[in-house]
């Protein structure tokens, strides 16, 4: 919700509630743990990812990355690269096709495109970060391109970069807004209430830099048809904004840019915005008049795709002796760049989780000379909940109170900063179930009280939170006379089960069997609409549009019936009908109706098609809407070596209706594993003198592996949210939130050591 929509928010309060969705009472497939429709294609290797496509006459590109962080290319020697075998062209700023600067993301207007940085791409000799592309080599094979790229010699004039977060944080400043929300929220007088509080905690929590490591590195294939038509195969979460960005950069009509994204091997925010490789690949294809493939190496992803900012957050909590909060202060500092300007929304969870008469929430930023930071795995909420939920645990110890009780008594009745009602909020219920299933009550709260030989055992808990987002988007729906239905929208499938859950939902809405429905996605030609996989919005956004499309197609079918007065549906109104058994049937006793095939054949039609758009997301303006969870975990810490093992995990969620418990559980497990990575192993090592990432590989950037992860149990309350499409709120990102705090809280319980700086490595426990 942005500052700009606050007027809409006021209007929304006078709007009627959404009507109860009858699907919630009648669904057959929504809620079933069905196999993914692409399971076989994935496990047999038939599912092809962008870099796996081969097309006639394809050339390959490789990038040369700057080895300084700030300054200027003064000389670039490309002769030996040009003479190397198979080389077709070497592009530098001097001979690059001209391109407009990329459109920086503006979440309120996606038609402009969505790039992570607005720096011109290889249009001048200036260098703004270590790793910025300074040349593109195009050759017959990938190996030839990479070999020749190594032969390019660059001379720089180097200037000292702004690189040290620690040195610059004193000069942090308020950004104009934080993802459209105000950077500062003040209620009452929090500093005064802190000073007067009976119990208080006041600490700074530090989180590391993190890099994206989707299993599929970013890749592009670009083909031009003349100078005006561009087709791009791209590994992206957002074909629509990728197309819009490219149209702007190459000054093309948006309808002349087609972006195709078949399967995506993970995105997590790192494939949301546009990064340099995509326009560079298109420019290379233009320059050599051939299709070009640019597939980033793992190191390439570290150099030109941003990750999560380093951050420092002060959380101060003041409470009465009964635990009631009287003051909450959350002030965060994150890093960003002058060319990306993304203030990661770390204070967002604090705006919605606890009641307090006094609050001071503010976020500041510093600018560093690095690759643009970006969205990453619940941006804001994951690092924000680490700080907040660690502090709540600290306050519970201060008060000698159970941390679940402390959270329960501070549960707000209305949204603490927006003052509106919650659409639904089962957080207390999630804790209740979690306490029972995890066996929380038998825990001795005393730190260092539980051992198994040399192993210190601790249990921790923390709240997980992620807001509900829905975008108004379009889908196309076609019903064929043979009974098949096709839903089309340019959505992204990056492993979550997008197609599977949409088929479940569309089949229920239409009242047809699963086999009769297909879902087509990943191609901007399917519909001109800003659907994207980000902010955990995609499932709900598409379901709302499908609901609109099904209503529209039903109306059209009733129009078709009018030509046949003998039809059992003649004269029927839509609200007297049910969609079931492959058609429309009257409700109640007379039960008469026709299948879709009968209606279409009766009208001598092969198919009927509609395009429908869902309405503005008034529900998220009227209500405070989010998914919530309680994350319980157990750790074992070796008393001598500090070796740390997560031994148990339970996550209990309220995310509304669970459309597919199987894919949802997988999704949650993935998020929680990322949370364990954030807590224990992941850290981008950054050389402050040179502003250079020092561990750009999976061998030195440690993501958790199988042995690091225990069985993760996920339970859903599965209570439909009447304000959400089909009752379902988002599940994509909440898994990582609260997870690192839960681990840190368990570590404190096990060892008596409060670690406020991630990752929690052995040295911090010795
Ligand atoms: Mo998500 S970090 O909005 O892909």
Describe this structure in words.
This protein has 766 residues and is α+β, with helices and mostly antiparallel strands. Helix content is 26%, strand content 23%. The protein has 20 helices and 29 strands. The strands form 7 sheets. The chain has a 7-stranded mixed β-sheet, with helices on both faces. A 5-stranded mixed β-sheet has the order 7-15-14-13-8, with helices on both faces. Strands 16-17-25-26-29 form a 5-stranded mixed β-sheet, sandwiched between helices. It binds dioxothiomolybdenum(VI) ion (MOS). Residues 237, 267-269, 272, 375-377, 379, 534-535, 733 line the site of dioxothiomolybdenum(VI) ion (MOS).
In the sheet with the most strands, the strands line up as 3-5-1-12-9-10-11
The molecules bound to the chains, other than polymers, are: dioxothiomolybdenum(VI) ion
Could you give the count of β-strands?
29
Main sheet summary: 7 strands, mixed
* Helical content band: 25-40%
Q: How big is the Rg?
A: 27 Å
Oligomer: single chain
**Can you give the mean pLDDT?**
96
Q: Residue ranges: pLDDT <50 for 5 or more in a row?
A: none
Task: Give the amount of beta strand, in percent.
Answer: 15-25%
Number of helices: 20
Instruction: Sum up the overall morphology in one term.
Output: globular
Distance between the termini: 44 Å
Structural class comes to alpha+beta
